[in-house]
Predict the structure.
Amino acid sequence: MVLEKEERARMKNRARVLLFCVSVLFVLLLPIASFADSSALILSSVPGDEEHAEKFTKWTEATRKVLVDKFGFAADRVIVLADKKTAKAEIQKAFAQFKTQLKPTDTFFLFFIGHGSYDTDYKFNILGPDFTGAEYGQLISTLPAGRTIIVNGTSASGGSVETLAGKNRVIITATKSGREANDTVFYEYFLKGLEEASADEDKDKKVSVWEAFKYATEAVERFYKEQGRMATEHPQLSSNGAEVIDLKVKDAPALARLTTFQVDRPITVADPALQALLNDKNAIDQKIEALRINKGNMPEAEYEKQLDELLVQLATKNQQIKDQEKKKP
Amino acid sequence: MKRNSRVFVLALLPCLLLSCGALWQTDANRAIELARTGEYKAAADALEGAVEGGNNDAQVVESLYYSWIRQGEYLKARDKFEAWASARPNAGPIRLAAGRIHRITGGFDRAMPHLNAIQNFAGIATAAQVEKARVLEDTGKRDEANAIYKKIIDNYQNGMYRSASDLYSVALAMWATEYFHDANDLFKIATQANPKNAEAYVSWGDLLLEKYNEPEAIASYQDALKIDSKLPEANLGLAKALALTDPEKAGQALDRAIAVNKVYPEASMMLANQLIDSEQYDKAENAIAEAQKINPQSAEAFSLLATINYLRGNKGEFDKYVQKVLQTNPTYSHLYFTIAENCVSVRLYKEAVGFAREALKINPRDWKAMSLLGVNLMRIGEEQEGRNMLERAYEGDRFNVWTVNTLTLLDSFVNFERIETPHFKVMLHKKEAAALRPYVTELLEKAYKDLSAKYAFTPETPIGFEMYPDHADFAVRTLGMPGLAALGVCFGKTLVMDSPSARKPDGFNWGSTLWHEFTHVITLQMTDHKIPRWFSEGLSVYEERKGFSGWGDDLKLEYLEAIQGKKLLPVGELNDGFIRPKYPEQVLVSYYQASLIADYIEEKNGFDAIKKMLLLYKAGKNTEQVFKEALGLDLSVFDTQFLSWVDARTKNISPKSFTTMVSEGQQNLAKGDTDKAIEQFKTAIEMYPEYTDEHNPYEPLAEAYLKKGDKQAAIDVLKKFMVYSETSFSSNLKLADLLKEQGDLAGARRWLEGAIYIRPLDFDGHNKLGPILLSQKQYPSAAREYETLIALNTPDKAGAWYHLAEAQWGSGNADEARKSVRRSLEIAPSFEPAQELLLKIVKK
């Protein structure tokens, strides 16, 4: 389901179609079968002082809350290791638990909150000896999850990309390198993007990994601009092992765009008429997506005309779906 | 008797020289060192005897010369050197000193024979040549002077000069012949060759200052002061270099110069310039008279007298002084430059342009005047001619920092968007134009409408308005160089100000700044720019307060301290507070005082009295006459009444008790004793309601009421806070939220608009204001909010486009609404409200 890096550029659209098709198949053929689930490990570093302790605790707890309460993570699939629990043994134990829990269709989210540092490799500051980026990479490799999303909001987090990036992984970091070692504000805004609807740019009621990254990155830029301070953090993202990118990239990477924080849930539709309408709607959705991708290759007026027609069709279809839903007993 | 004595001395001299030679030389060296380190009196006492006794050594004579003139002993120096030169015609250094002292005291005819006699005198020839060329320049013989300078430069190029003093003379020659870069290099070489040459550092500083390179000029003067900490020329240079950016330090440097040389003509002239700036012409004339006691022929003094008479409207006297200057030196274009520069100081920009043109008629190579012309053409809105002039000035003098900075800024104008409104030509930086344009243009037109009506005066249009996101660019546009502390400047028909992004958030209120500057347009144009600075600034702050709740300075702690410390100035001297502040806060205190004067006049005599005053200024009356005719009061009586009114307003405020009450209130609030905290904050507000800066009692009081669930009380407190505070963005939003909760959408809207005058580039204000305007069916205003959010790259672009479409649809603009809703659905195809709106539009 996830495209290879080299195919991504020319097959963006197909990726979405494929995702849609697979999800429809699950819905139609296996309504009671197992579905893709999500798990998360939230690591909060040793804070160092009271001010940081308060901040990291707030971020950690808010992250857990938003995953469970808003995005539908099962409570037992979210492990939080904070303060003194953030030690090598506890982390290894957590990974061992996920190893038994995760399936190849699942997505695993790993959050790093707090202090990081960089020497020859990234280190996340825990109680006792730190794990290096390479060691976290090895731990992640033991998991059977289909996708791994790493959100590293610490100082020097850019230094973790080299060892954590890989196939079927998205890594988001607060800084562009290990040398950006000051305290970061990135995670504050990343979390805000998850908590509030404002990060949901396409209003599909889901927050994709790309949307959250984009929201937080723009907010960080604004923060430094408004404060009149030189930016000491430059968020970046690496998807599927590709080189790191920032918001200047023309096309958002498919894996980051198609992976959302919401846990997939099966939708069963018993009404064939409604199902037909949903199928029609999805077909229009695909046409709109194809048109948007092709925007740069056609005259503006033609694009606007076609877009208008498709949007009217989509709106009309949605109206019909709502009408049909009202007819349900 | 006289003859005999001389013979006796002459007879003994060889013996004295033989027996005491070593000791004598040591004493002279010690005296020279004293002269070089600011001990002028001791040096002069020691050296006078030596020279009197026949010592003609160049260093000894020069040290005596400088020791005298630096103590202000000009006339003694002139008489002594003249007498010695007559007695010893072959003593080259004595004749050089005589030539110099005659030149700086205006005796050009008497200087020339001395200087002519020593043009080839070993060791001092180059200095004598420069001195002669200067006399020729002073008397209008520029070509002859240039021939001498050229010869000096040729000799230098042929390797004839090696000594540090010669190199210094070459630097002066290069400067005089417009080889500015080379002169700069030569000063460097000359000071390296003789690091103790304080005069060379001063001249180097003067060159840099002439080119408006103030930071480097300051460094050069400071180098001179490291050698001689009392050097009056260096302190004067420092005073001039700091005058615009740090007037307080400039005043201190000027005081130091005058403390050493009480009759220093150049210092008197600087003082006269400052007095002209503060429109105290009688005092300026007195200062000039002091300078003329030393040099009755000073062209600079006559130029300043011409300036004063021009500003007073005395045409006959003006012509007389112009003639006096030009009779002596017909090429002295600095006459008109001086008048033009002083016109700029009193905001007569058009007149400055006229005088700069006159300067160029006399000397088309006066690059400084050409630069001044270019800059002031820009200020009066003649952008193209201004640029042309600046480019020509740059071709002639690439060393002038003002010219270079302004041209660099002009090059950056391609990054600005130009917008025309009914009365303004607006220039906003492209990176923020989309977000600022609707607010800026709306507020400008509102200011035009409201204030034109209030003052019954229609200003000349179009009025230029420029907003700079980089404060350094704003400073270059206004002063030619970075370092200006102001937020905005008005040139009468052009307004220039910082944009909100040039400052830290909540650092200033751009709305009140714009309103302030536009008020200057009215008061300057209405009086033909004859309004004194203090009154113009006072009315601008006064109008700020009336423009929007909270705008304009209120009684800050430092103002209160100034009032209670009896530091307010009489009206007749109030301009000094702006131009020559004596303490760090005096400029701001003077703005505040001037605004209180406007408040007071309005309260006692009504606003019509203010209008009458403006018309009297236009008629050319001075402040004393204006107060007499408009208010029926002598200035001294007005001062007494005004100060008593101010005292009555502030007598019950005790800063110490206030601070204690607020601190204790905060402690009690933190401890949970909310009721006690409330009482303390309330008492503090009652005592000192205008205090809204850090640790004010309003914000914690509102918080305390909210803690107790009393939202109405919190609203009342925040409303009162907003009467005085113009930069509290968060309190504006909080008040708006509370009012919205109570269903008072109009109230919420008012405070959200207030918030946007503080932070127009922040999403929060627009995000909250947009829905209120839509719900009130204020569609054009709502559209403005969403257009701004889109321009600011809001994260919720689909939402902003949808709401913009709603506003356009509400305004009956279906086509635009359809385009906007398409943009929304392009980002978020499943966005149901947008889909519904699209269908509504399609069905229509």
